[in-house]
Amino acid sequence: MSAVARVSSSRNLRLGVSTRFWDLTVRLRRRSFGPRCPSSNRLLRLTEPVNLSRRFELAMCLEVAEHLPAESADILVETLTNLAPVVMFSAAHPGQGGQDHVNERWPAYWYRRFAQHGYGVLDILRGPLSDDPGVLDCYRRNIVFYVESSRSLAILVRAEESDVPDAFVLAHQDGITTDLLHQPWRVLVRTLVRKLRRRVWRRAR
Fold first, then answer.
1. Model pLDDT, residue 41
2. Which of 179, 62, 170 is closest to 124 using CA atoms?
3. Are 150 and 75 in contact (CB under 8 A)?
4. Long-range contacts of 23-28 (CB under 8 A, 24+ apart)
5. Statement to judge: residues 102 and 186 lie in one domain
6. Do 159 and 80 belong together in one domain?
7. What mean pLDDT comes out for the span 7-17?
8. Which of 1, 70, 146, 194 has its CA 20 to 30 A from that of 158?
9. In Å, what is the CA distance from 116 to each residue of 59, 167, 205?
10. Lowest-confidence range among 93-97, 117-121, 127-131?
11. Does 146 share its domain with 202?
12. Is the dihedral of CA 100, 106, 108, 111 positive or negative?
C-alpha cells in the first residue's frame, strides 16, 4: 500500500506517505532532490483529516482505501482532493481479497465521493496496463485518475493523441477476458459447457 503527494516547484519537494503495519498509521516523509534540503518524518492517521497547507500537482493513493473503515472514506477523499487537482487512485473491489481489507467497494462508491468535490473519473490507465505482466493485478484492474473538471480536457487531449485503449474492450475481445487465468476451474468448466450448449442449440434450430 502506498500514498504519495508529488510536486514540482521551486523547492522541488516530494511528500511520500506509506502505511505501516496495517495499523492505519502512516509515515509522511519529506525528501529533497537538492543536497541542502533537510528531510523530516511525521506520523499521520488517514482516518483523520490531513492538512499540509499546500497543494501538489499529483496525489497518489494506491490500494490503501480498502484498509480504512468505511466511516473514514469521506475523510480520505477530502484529504486527497485537498492535496492535488489530479489523484491517481486504486482501491480493492468486492471479492478481491487481501490482508486486513475492511472496506472493499465497487468503483461507483468512490466515483460519488470524488464527485462531491467536483472531481470526475478518467479511466485511461487500465487500458495501457491491461497486458503488462510487470504490473500487479490489483493496479491493472483498479487504477484510475480523479481529476478536477478544469484539468480534464488537457489530460483527455493527451490520452487521445496517445491512442489510449479502452480496458473493457480489451478485456472482452474475442469473448475471452484477461481475467481468465485467475478463474477457478469450476467456473471455467461451467462457462465452457454453457457455450457448447448454446452452440449445439443454434445448430439444431
1. 54
2. 170
3. no
4. 24/67, 24/68
5. no
6. yes
7. 38
8. 1
9. 18, 25, 53
10. 127-131
11. no
12. positive
The count of other CB atoms within 10 Å of the CB of residue 152 is 18
Same domain, 181 and 130: no
Distances (CA, A) of 7 to 72, 149, 191: 25, 20, 48
| CA distance to 102, 167, 169, 177, 186, per residue, from 174 (Å) | 36, 14, 10, 8, 21
And the C-alpha cell for 168? 473493457
Q: Report the pLDDT averaged over residues 10-22.
A: 39
SS3 149: helix
- Residues in the chain, how many? 205
Measure the CA–CA gap between 28 and 189, rounded to whole angstroms. 48
Domains in the chain, number:
2
Confidence of residue 183 (pLDDT cuts 50, 70, 90): low
Q: Is 76 in the same domain as 47?
A: yes
Rounded Cα gap, residues 57 and 118, in angstroms:
16
* Structural domain boundaries enclosing 106: 2-171
Query: Residue 62: in which H helix or E strand, if any?
Result: strand 58-62
* Phi, psi (degrees; rounded to nearest 5) at 35: -70, -20
